Amino acid sequence: MSEAAPLMVRFTVNGRSVEVDAAGDVPLLAVLRGDLGLTGSRFGCGLEQCGACMVLVDGAPAYACSRPAWSVADRSVATIEDVGRDPVLAALKQAFLDEQAGQCGYCLSGIVMSARALLAREPSPDRAAVVAALDRHLCRCGVHNRIVRAVQRAAAHLAAEGAAA
Amino acid sequence: MIANQLPRSLADNPRLDAWIGFDAPGQVRIATGKVELGQGVLTTIAQIAAEELDVALRRLRLVSGDTGEGPNEGYTAGSYSVENSGGALRIVCAEVRALFLERAATLLDCAAQELDVEDGAFRRDGRPTGFDYWRLAGDIDLSREATGGAAPKPVAAYRLVGHSQPRTDLPDKIGGGAFIHDMRMPDLLHARVLRQAWRGAELGALDERALHRAARRPIEILREGSFLALLGADEASVEAAAAVAREKAAWSGGERPPDEAAEAGWLMAQPAAERVIAEGEPAEAGERIEATYSRGFIAHASIGPSCALAHWDGTRLDVWTHSQGVYPLRQSLARALGLDPVAVAVRHRQAAGCYGHNGADDAAFDAALLAMRRPGRTVRVQWTRADELTAAPFGAPMAVRLGAALGPQGRPAGWSLDIWSAPHGQRPGMHGAVNLIGAEALSGAPSRVPPGDVPDANGFGSARNAFAPYDLRAQRIVTHFLAGHPVRTSSLRGLGAFANVFAIESFIDELAEAAGQDPVAYRLSLLPDPRARATIEAVAAMAGWSPDAPAGEGTAKGIGFSRYKNKAAYMAAIAEVELDEEVRVARLWCAVDAGLVVNPDGAANQVEGGIVQATSWTLKESVRFREGRAGCTQWDTYPILRFSEVPAVEIRFMDMASEPPLGLGEVAQGPTAAAIGNAVARALGARIRDLPLSRERIIAALM
Lengths: 165, 703
Known about the structure:
The structure holds two protein chains of two kinds.
Chain A: E1 8-13, E2 16-21, H1 28-35, E3 54-57, E4 60-63, E5 76-78, H2 87-98, H3 108-121, H4 127-134, H5 144-164
Parallel strand pairs in A: 1-5
Antiparallel strand pairs in A: 1-2, 3-4, 3-5
Chain B: H1 8-12, E1 20-21, E2 28-32, H2 41-53, E3 60-64, H3 81-108, E4 115-118, E5 121-124, E6 127-132, H4 133-136, H5 170-173, E7 188-194, E8 202-203, H6 208-214, E9 220-224, E10 227-232, H7 235-248, E11 251-252, H8 264-269, E12 273-279, E13 288-295, E14 307-312, E15 317-321, H9 326-337, E16 344-348, H10 360-373, E17 378-382, H11 385-390, E18 394-395, E19 398-406, E20 412-421, H12 437-441, E21 475-481, E22 489-490, H13 497-515, H14 519-526, H15 530-543, E23 555-563, E24 570-579, E25 583-593, H16 600-620, E26 625-626, E27 629-630, E28 648-653, H17 669-684, H18 695-702
């Protein structure tokens, strides 16, 4: 066995510039959870089939579990931990708590990230639009209806705030 | 709520200080043996404790599932938590409150009845006395046994119980590091364990150089018999080597299950231990109606694969796990590893949703064994998606045969029910067996102890809800228990109730049809229990049930009812389905009588979650075996219900606050399946008796 040479890549996570070793196709999720200590993004399948690991890369939803970390070089990654900086994420989190849209909660951070991307392109999504945006996410506890309501609640809250501003 | 009858949890753990302490100023330590599985139990338990103590919820610090601290309440299972742990804490907290008030009254030279409690402070005539729980904590020795002598609050005085409370643990689960998967320790050793292809499978020779080559950083390979683990400081390298090991591993021997291991015909042909649970009456003369129903293997399919950590310092083993029972797990770990149980500390940490005996205990053994082989290091074992779907125990396949004749007024007579079932309980320690798959893979592992069925006192296993709730004079119930089933099966939400309620409620619809009666009216005419009738009447009103609704038109409603375990919560459900080549459940209404509901919103969340999950089981889920291996290695091969397939759900709780709380965590599984099954039968004009109600079966029925 030979230790492969490091492959340092630089990218932005939640507004912060970071440099990590991305050699050997190490998945972005491993870098986020391990090297960067951002444990909000979750390992569910490693196969792009459940969405627990969903993050945003340049604003678009991306599965962090299988995507090589080198592929985000010079790009901007957002995770659930961006909730302190991003008022839309904060509104989503609050709406999820208001609706008590969770049981075990394991799937939620990925779902919130997909919802964040949805609200960026469609500020007032109808139920069908929310369902379509979240359909690639799996929830085993059966909280789907509350989750859809929470996303619409966040949208309504943000719209009301925008109207007031 | 009866003062002189202690709940089982309190009888087992009678000391007050096992449950409560005032260790830190302004805080109350409340310990429970029940653990948070995603069901919100810690919030509910906190509500009950805070209510009896008259302290604010925020003052409670909950200790949960720790063998070093807190009561032993066995497993968090069977919808017993509110009844047992909640029941114990209700009595403990009422008694502690009374002890403190008595002490304060002595110091104030007044009668205890003159005092009341406001957020932990004792008041007299509404004015502060200067005393509170914390100031008097040193005066009162809580290392005494509960007597059950203090009367808990009357329901009418409740301020917290019966009112919705947000889950205390939810904020950290959206983004925070709330899960066992997020624990980080210094000097961590990551590990993957190769799972046996089937029970007893022996691992052939493996080219270790190929495993090392696949890893970018150094890894270690540990092999004992057919237990193979990869360890290293770099998780990605460990996983890369494990992927090669999974691909290259060759398996032989053992108990390779046949492809048809879940089919009704196969189950009914296997050697089985027969047990007559109820004798019934002789079969009625007249035309006998018989039907056989079945369900297959169902995977727990938690979104987060199992994980565990362990550390061995040469004398003491520390284990972190998401097990449902830290005390039973400790016993099994100690036995399998040759340790004294007191040398083992097992602590619960939260994980993704748990719906029964999943891979948590097995992952804990993996970590514990590896920690003992690498003293001084903390070993973290992470299961893969394939491990989680294929190596965790499955919900047990069952076949249920019902028979009856129609007597006067179309009433069933000569009722009989036969159940063929694989085991519903193979948890660690059950039936004298270690029951940890890692331990089974080791060289020299003891031969497997044949499992038994879940004891009747625990609400039955295969015969859970086998007693039909209807007025049938006498029922004959026989179980045919398949102890030798080659696939590892164990407890999954509802155990036998899922198949038994599906079968009984489908059969009742079949009898109603044979008798020319409306299914709702037929049930009401046969149900002696007024609470049961009330839930059915409530759901019929909610759904706008009409006896004249047409059948066989591609859309229809169906009803299902049961009282979980025949002693917990009642639920009546009506499903509305739309059907072409697939079933879509458009809407589901339900009425639930759970007595006093401690946290109504939390309870609604649990019931709706159960409905959605049971809809998924009913429409989609069944594990297929090919060449001895479970075919469900990923979500593509084990699909579950998606956002676009989830029904609209409407829930009503019956107003029964004056009645004791009834467990409701598993109430939805059976009635949901039955309601969908009956709706599909009406919409299709033909009945499918085997679950799931898959596309293939719908197409076959349409032919």
